[in-house]
Each structure stands twice: as C-alpha cells, then as structure tokens.
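Researcher: Next entry in the queue.
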Amino acid sequence: MKIPSRLRENALAIFKAGLQAADPLEAIHRHVKRIGLKLQVGEKVYNLSDYERIFVIGGGKAGASMARAIEDLLKGRITAGLVNVKYGHLADLEVIRLNEAGHPIPDEAGVQGTQEIVDLARQAGEKDLVICLISGGGSALLPLPVPGITLEEKQTVTKLLLACGATINEINTLRKHISQIKGGQLARIVMPATLISLILSDVIGDPLDVIASGPTVPDESTFQDCWRIFEKYQLVDRIPRSVLNHIRAGLSGRVAETPKPGDPAFAKTQNLIVGSNLLAVKAAAQKAKELGYNTLILSSFVEGETREVAKVHTAIVKEILNSGNPIPPPACIISGGETTVTLKGKGLGGRNQEFALAAAIDIAGLKDVVILSAGTDGTDGPTDAAGAIVDGSTVQRAKDLNLDPFKYLQENDSYHFFQPLGDLILTGPTNTNVMDLRILLVGA
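Model: Structure for this entry, 444 residues:
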C-alpha cells in the first residue's frame, strides 16, 4: 500500500498551482484586451473597424482553450475559424471549429485539417485580420508535407528522430523543411492580410522560430542544418528516399528555402508569447513558499537525457539531506524544461515517468523525500498519465509486488511499473502545454 504523505499532498498541490498559471484562457486574457472597437495585443492596438472579416486558425494541444478565449474577446466578429487539436482536447465553441488529430505522431486527420486551415487562410485579403493560435504540439498537429512526400514518410522521420533522442529543435528543423506551412510559410499564405499570432510556448527559452516549428515567424534554419542532423544521428541510410531527395534539392537550390528575416511575408505580422514554462515554474514556487518550504527554482532550461537529468536532481536532494545546501529543509527544488528519452526497450512510458523511475531508484530508502515529474499537457509520451510521483519507499513497495525497477527502466516501461503502485499522475487533458514541471521536496 502507498503510504499517505503530507509531502506527497504538497507536491501535488504545487504542481496544480503551476498548471493553473499555464491556463491558456487566462494567459490570453492577460495579454489581449478589447475595449469597444480597440483590440490591444501586447503593446500594439488594432482598430477592429479597419477589418472586413476576422479569421481564426491554428494548432496545438492548448488550441481549444485559446480559441475559447478569442471567442470571448471577439464575440460576434469572427467570420470563420478552424484549429487542429489533439484527440480529446476539446471545448464548447460557437464559431471556431476544432479538428481532432494525432499527436505526437501526425495522422491523416491532421493533414486534412491543415489543408482546410490553409484554404481558409488563402481567403483572407488585405482588409482582413487573421488570428493564429499556436501551442505545444503544433508541429505534429499541423502536418502538410511538401508534394512528393507522404504522411507515412513524414511519420517515419518523426519516429526515427524521437527514438534517437533528438531535441525538439532538431525535430522541428526537419519538419519545417518538409512542410508547406512551417518555418514562416503560413505567414506567406496569409499575406496580404494582417496576422496576429498568439503563442503558448512549450520550448526551452521560448524561441519563436522553434515553437510548433514557427509557422508565422522567420526561419533561421536551413537545408544544410537538416543534413547535419541526419549525419549526427547516422540516419542517412534510414531516412525515406523522398525526404532525402527533397533535402538534397534544397541544398542544391532547386527548392526554395523557408522565408528568412526581412521577408515581406512578415510586414504585417505580430507574434506574441502569452504563456511559458517559466510562468508555471514561478507559480509553483510561490505555492511552495506559501506551504512553508525554503524554495529554489533550479532552472526552466533543463534538457538532456532523462535518466542523467534525474541523477543530477537526486544528487541535489542528497546534498540537502547531508549539508543543508543549497537550501535547508524543509526544502522545495523546482525545475522546468523538457528532457528526452533514448528508446532501447519496448515498454510504455514517457520522459516524466522515466525520470520518476530513475529518481526512485536513486532515493530508495531515504526518508522525508518526494519527487514529482509531470507534463503540463496531462499526457506523458503515448500514455494517459501526466507523469509520476515517488518517494523513498517506492522501490521497496515495488519489490513487495515482485516488480524489478531496474528491469522496467531498462525496458523503458515506466508506465507499467507505476500503474500497480498507484503512483501515476492522472490529470486528463489539461488543454495547455508549457513543457514539464519537476518538484523535489525534502521534509524537515
């Protein structure tokens, strides 16, 4: 049986506070205000009477909540809208349609929805306003491969890169150069209409050209970068021939590059980040302080191989127990960002569950220690769990059920390790996505 713990309850409360801060509806209302016919977006003000029609497009796991916020703000003014979202990530809307599609692996529903989004964007003229809603998962949810490359071939590329442990930046570089809309190309399609892109960041450092593969911002990456990624992960002989041929055509100049800074496509475009991982991390830290913990934000830039990142975090826990550094108990260490998992086994799990399993092994037997790792989108990898929560008794409780933690870690099967223990964090779809939160608590 799992032992009830005040530390566990506090860790879950701290995580919940971070989730609330990442709520897309509240994020948009913080940055977008309407006063009569004036729409203030960040520091820019738009006169709605200048526009004949308003279209809403976009894609991402937070798309439903973002669309609801826009309908609240522009009630009665929206001409039409379509946003691609992950299956099950829905909301009640009046005008904007939601198209459910596959994530993290794109599917045919995503392709069809993206083509409809492009068709809608092409209707916009010089006197129209287009609002684009972008959030985490947008890359997979807005798939529209270039002619000559099939969805299956694009899926193969995504699977290969995920299995190799490629970073989100690297995956998006490839996506941009085999897509019709990513890497600023959606802005080209919308032109000459006015374009406002509201962005909920799920990428470390909030680089606009990387979030959802930057469909509305200039792209600094090149076909040469794509080829370097193939070589880095030794994929040249495994990538589909059509993709290789397209990248080679780009290298030789036979295929145009994505639009770069200064391109006319961005003359009437505003890109604004409305939410990020750092915002969630800060809210979680505030909750920890309210609960009486000495609190330290480690970083919102954490990335790297999940198991190695877990070792660094557990080392900090051990240091707190041994010396009271960097902060004394009761202590709360919070980090954000997004790690990667290099798949070697055939199990089921995600980066947060794997982090928790690796951490559980490292803190086995320690008292008054709880570690939580979870994704703000409510889904960790191809599972229905957001992550997992562990303590010093987790490994022993597992052994009592004849579960070998080392074997499950080796097989990348963290989901089936935590499921019988009752240690999975199940939030359901949160309709947001600002990467992950890791919470380390050390009791007094």
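Model: The chain has a mean pLDDT of 95.
Researcher: Noted, moving on.
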